[in-house]
Write a structure and sequence with these properties.
Radius of gyration: 46 Å
Strand content: 25-35%
Oligomer: single chain
Structural class: mainly beta
Number of helices: 4
Length: 380
């Protein structure tokens, strides 16, 4: 009801015929969803359920669950998950409960995950007197068929306590259009048509199908297998039926828990062809003065003998004689080459050198003077 200054009385413009909007806002009737360990199929489940025990003393509803050092692997580690079955979209206020005692954890980590891609944490000290304790964790947006949930992550080795969680719708003014879906850690598993039961950064868990195995299940999310148990579709995990991650049981379905990333194998290193020698790489340094000797070798500045690199000085371009200052027993392939940039191998087959020497030897023989004429030799 409002007052109009142009008229003397109030003007009624909101009628009961339009309950959908009130002053421009969508009407949001109260809606409450309870998720509890005592309510079957309400959306409560546990990880490492063998580490949890039930008690009914001072519980908020029926019984409560707590991590015990006397059961399971005695590590007092596990997770409690409350995932409501949402009938209508909206912003839901979340209220968790637990039984507080002196020996509870001092850092109970609650993780709230909504259907808009949001995620936040709340840390609660459960180690105090007070028995049934309820705590408001704020609002999260939940959709019909979505995966909004609350996770109590008991990872500190202390005794975390879990009881009912209540989701109460407070607002219906959600986004006009669904936001674009954000990539989720386990989308690769969903894309293969396999069931994802637990999901968070760096961790996926659920049921593989069609006998594909945990290696395929975890590999689809880029993770490695951390736990392999018996299991059936519907997120039914058989904690007492454990298998090694690398064992193929032959079952059509099993439970797989995946963590981290698949180690990247080292890349294959291609075999490179041998490098082609570059003349500049074989050139001597500036302080390494090298001079050519008359016999075709090289003498280094430090007085040592450098190896022959296959070149001859200009003065030695004539046909070599039998004495070249080299050891004839040392083959060309065995002779050290030092920093030679180029090496000229002899051609295959017999060397042509002896045939080239024949005409020169004949020429030298014709030019050689004969012995002096003997006085007693008769003249012709």
């Amino acid at each position: 009801m409002v007052f109009d200054s142009r008229r003397s009385g109030p003007v009624w413009f909101v009628t009961l015929l339009s309950p959908v909007t009130v002053f421009g806002q969508q009407a949001c009737p109260p809606l409450e969803v309870v998720v509890d360990n005592d309510l079957p199929r309400s959306g409560y489940r546990e990880e490492q359920a063998e580490n949890w025990e039930s008690r009914g003393v001072a519980a908020c509803n029926g019984t409560y669950r707590y991590l015990s050092r006397y059961v399971g692997d005695r590590s007092r580690r596990g997770r409690a998950i409350w995932q409501p079955a949402i009938a209508e979209d909206g912003f839901y206020a979340v209220k968790v409960s637990y039984r507080a005692t002196e020996n509870r954890t001092t850092d109970a980590k609650y993780v709230l995950i909504d259907d808009l891609g949001g995620r936040r944490e709340h840390h609660e000290n459960q180690a105090h007197a007070g028995d049934c304790t309820r705590v408001d964790l704020g609002e999260i947006f939940c959709r019909v068929g979505g995966e909004c949930r609350v996770v109590l992550d008991g990872d500190d080795g202390q005794s975390a306590s879990a009881d009912e969680t209540i989701f109460r719708r407070e607002r219906c003014d959600g986004p006009a259009q669904p936001p674009p879906p954000l990539p989720r850690p386990c989308d690769g598993i969903r894309n293969l048509g396999m069931e994802v039961c637990e999901e968070e950064e760096g961790r996926c868990a659920g049921i593989f199908s069609q006998g594909q195995g945990c290696a395929v299940y975890c590999g689809a999310a880029g993770m490695r297998c951390a736990e392999h148990l018996g299991g059936e579709p519907g997120c039914n995990r058989e904690a007492a039926n454990a298998h090694s991650c690398d064992v193929e049981t032959g079952n059509l379905s099993d439970w797989c828990a995946c963590e981290g990333e698949v180690p990247t194998p080292p890349p294959d290193v291609p075999v490179m062809p041998p490098a082609v020698p570059v003349l500049a790489d074989a050139m001597p340094a500036e302080d390494d003065v090298v001079s050519l000797r008359d016999d075709g070798g090289r003498a280094s500045s430090d007085g040592g003998q450098a190896s022959d690199i296959g070149f001859r000085p200009i003065a030695d371009l004539s046909i070599p004689g039998p004495d070249l200052g080299e050891d004839p027993s040392e083959s060309d392939s065995e002779r050290p080459r030092g920093n030679a940039a180029c090496h000229f191998s002899p051609p295959a087959g017999p060397s042509p050198t002896p045939w080239l020497l024949v005409p020169f030897l004949l020429l030298l023989g014709r030019r050689r003077p004969g012995p002096p004429q003997s006085a007693n030799r008769p003249l012709r």
